[in-house]
Write a structure and sequence with these properties.
Keywords: Membrane, Transmembrane, Transmembrane helix. This protein has three helices and no strands. By secondary structure, the chain is mainly α. It has one domain. Helix 2 runs antiparallel to helix 3. It starts with a helix and ends with a helix.
Length: 87
Amino acid sequence: MALKAAIYLLCLLASVGCAAVLFASYRRKATRLALWTALCFALLALNNLFVVLDILILPNVDLVPARKLTSLAAAAVMVAGFVWETE
């Protein structure tokens, strides 16, 4: 269980770190693709937070709908960003 918790927490930290770096990059260079990617990773971080809450902290509460919604939103933001940038 400790290894499982460590993996989930590292995934959460990695996605938060990626979002932070991408937001900083967007602030420096103001490229829209960096913004779209940063928003995607922020939503993935929220998704990973729901995973940690669902599996480790609140095992009796079903957070699967929230997890699925945030992962869908992250993918939708990324696809929208790619479509917007190719036009």
